[in-house]
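Following up on my earlier thread - several people asked me to post the actual chain instead of describing it. Fair enough. Here it is, all 196 residues.
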Amino acid sequence: MILDFYKFYSAGNTGDRAGSDCSGGKGIFAVSNGSVDNIVSGWDHSAVNVTEQLRKSVIGALSGGSGNISPRAAVAALALNENKAVWISAGDARVFFLHDREFYFCAEKTSRNASGDNAGSVSAPEMFSYDTPLKTGDAFLICTGGANEYLRDDEILVDMLKSGSAAGWAELLLLRIVERMGGGNDDLSLLTVRVK
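Reply from S.P.:
Thanks for posting it. Predicted structure:
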């Protein structure tokens, strides 16, 4: 399995980040409104229990190591290991999985309360897995709220189908985002992954 990926982030006031560590058809990919270093650095590509490793590293990122999850935290992460995909998202970060030229999985958008924050929305991030071998054409988009609030699901699919690479897909998505955001957004991270 060959992975093609592209990451983009703007480190504005929110400190959005995107990170990755990929080798030999295995990888860890993450976006967050905080640091992703503790998720991607030191990732054990030979780990047997990828799901547990991802859960622990994401909970650590959400809590800043304190064990108490910040109500404003947002993180999404994807681990690929031996043709298994495991992902998790919390806050306003989302994961999209496209398989057989259609959506296989699309994380729900986080509902916000009247004050506009997502307090309480990250207390129990959900994990998902895909245990069937990935195949050429499968693709993932991992993004924070600054990206997904400007994109419709059908546009994500169309842009993936029009592009020939992870970078091309990200560029098409970024064109849509920049056109719609009007220069006032500093919360923007996205990471595209395609199986070649």
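The radius of gyration is 15 Å. That should answer part of your original question.
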